[in-house]
Amino acid sequence: MMAKQRMPSVYQRNAFAPGLLAAVVLFLAPALMSGDWFLLVLFVIAILAVIVGWFAVQARQWWWLPAFAAIAVLWNPLFPFPFSGPLWSFAQPAAAVIFLVAGAMIKVRRS
Predict the structure, then answer these.
(1) Is 107 left (phi over 0), alpha (psi -120 to 50) or beta?
(2) 57 vs 75: CA distance, rounded Å
(3) How far lies 110's CA from each of 17, 56, 88, 90, in Å?
(4) Mind listing the pLDDT tens digit for each residue in 90-111?
Protein backbone atom coordinates (compact mmCIF):
# COMPACT_ATOMS: atom_id res chain seq x y z
CA MET A 1 0.00 0.00 0.00
CA MET A 2 1.30 3.42 -0.93
CA ALA A 3 1.77 6.03 1.80
CA LYS A 4 -0.12 9.24 1.34
CA GLN A 5 2.19 12.24 1.05
CA ARG A 6 1.34 15.40 2.97
CA MET A 7 1.51 18.72 1.23
CA PRO A 8 3.49 21.34 3.15
CA SER A 9 1.55 24.31 4.46
CA VAL A 10 1.57 27.42 2.31
CA TYR A 11 1.54 29.64 5.41
CA GLN A 12 3.86 30.08 8.34
CA ARG A 13 2.84 31.47 11.71
CA ASN A 14 5.82 33.44 13.00
CA ALA A 15 3.87 34.93 15.92
CA PHE A 16 2.72 31.57 17.29
CA ALA A 17 5.76 30.73 19.47
CA PRO A 18 6.17 34.19 21.06
CA GLY A 19 2.40 34.42 21.54
CA LEU A 20 2.32 31.05 23.26
CA LEU A 21 5.28 31.94 25.48
CA ALA A 22 3.66 35.26 26.46
CA ALA A 23 0.38 33.50 27.26
CA VAL A 24 2.14 31.05 29.58
CA VAL A 25 3.89 33.89 31.41
CA LEU A 26 0.66 35.89 31.67
CA PHE A 27 -1.31 32.95 33.04
CA LEU A 28 1.38 32.58 35.74
CA ALA A 29 1.59 36.35 36.38
CA PRO A 30 -1.16 36.62 39.04
CA ALA A 31 0.82 34.23 41.24
CA LEU A 32 3.96 36.34 40.78
CA MET A 33 2.42 39.79 41.33
CA SER A 34 3.33 40.16 44.97
CA GLY A 35 6.99 39.20 44.54
CA ASP A 36 10.08 40.55 42.87
CA TRP A 37 9.54 38.21 39.92
CA PHE A 38 6.80 40.44 38.52
CA LEU A 39 9.45 42.82 37.12
CA LEU A 40 10.64 39.94 34.95
CA VAL A 41 7.04 39.38 33.82
CA LEU A 42 6.84 43.04 32.76
CA PHE A 43 10.04 42.77 30.73
CA VAL A 44 9.05 39.52 29.03
CA ILE A 45 5.54 40.68 28.12
CA ALA A 46 6.63 44.10 26.83
CA ILE A 47 9.33 42.54 24.64
CA LEU A 48 7.06 39.79 23.31
CA ALA A 49 4.32 42.35 22.57
CA VAL A 50 6.76 44.27 20.38
CA ILE A 51 7.85 41.04 18.65
CA VAL A 52 4.30 39.85 17.94
CA GLY A 53 3.38 43.37 16.83
CA TRP A 54 6.28 43.33 14.39
CA PHE A 55 5.14 39.98 12.98
CA ALA A 56 1.67 41.52 12.53
CA VAL A 57 3.24 44.37 10.54
CA GLN A 58 5.14 41.88 8.38
CA ALA A 59 1.92 39.95 7.75
CA ARG A 60 0.14 43.24 6.90
CA GLN A 61 -2.42 42.63 9.64
CA TRP A 62 -2.39 46.20 10.94
CA TRP A 63 -5.45 45.77 13.17
CA TRP A 64 -3.31 43.94 15.75
CA LEU A 65 -1.04 46.96 16.29
CA PRO A 66 -3.25 48.91 18.74
CA ALA A 67 -3.62 45.85 20.99
CA PHE A 68 0.09 45.10 21.12
CA ALA A 69 1.08 48.75 21.44
CA ALA A 70 -1.25 49.00 24.45
CA ILE A 71 0.18 45.80 25.96
CA ALA A 72 3.75 47.04 25.44
CA VAL A 73 2.90 50.33 27.18
CA LEU A 74 0.84 48.88 30.05
CA TRP A 75 3.41 46.16 30.85
CA ASN A 76 6.30 48.61 30.39
CA PRO A 77 9.00 47.75 32.98
CA LEU A 78 10.99 50.99 32.63
CA PHE A 79 8.16 53.32 33.68
CA PRO A 80 5.69 50.91 35.30
CA PHE A 81 2.17 51.95 36.14
CA PRO A 82 1.15 51.35 39.77
CA PHE A 83 -1.65 48.96 38.83
CA SER A 84 -3.01 46.50 41.37
CA GLY A 85 -6.20 44.84 42.47
CA PRO A 86 -8.71 42.64 40.71
CA LEU A 87 -8.78 44.64 37.46
CA TRP A 88 -5.02 44.25 36.99
CA SER A 89 -5.31 40.56 37.91
CA PHE A 90 -8.00 40.16 35.24
CA ALA A 91 -5.84 42.00 32.68
CA GLN A 92 -3.19 39.26 32.80
CA PRO A 93 -5.31 36.38 31.39
CA ALA A 94 -7.14 38.82 29.06
CA ALA A 95 -3.80 39.79 27.50
CA ALA A 96 -2.87 36.09 27.35
CA VAL A 97 -5.96 35.41 25.25
CA ILE A 98 -5.02 38.27 22.91
CA PHE A 99 -1.54 36.75 22.48
CA LEU A 100 -3.00 33.29 21.80
CA VAL A 101 -5.52 34.52 19.23
CA ALA A 102 -2.96 36.70 17.48
CA GLY A 103 -0.41 33.89 17.45
CA ALA A 104 -2.92 31.62 15.74
CA MET A 105 -4.20 34.21 13.26
CA ILE A 106 -1.09 36.11 12.18
CA LYS A 107 0.34 34.25 9.20
CA VAL A 108 2.38 34.97 6.10
CA ARG A 109 2.59 33.11 2.83
CA ARG A 110 5.71 31.02 2.42
CA SER A 111 7.83 32.08 -0.51
Answers:
(1) beta
(2) 20
(3) 17, 15, 39, 37
(4) 999 999 999 999 999 999 988 7
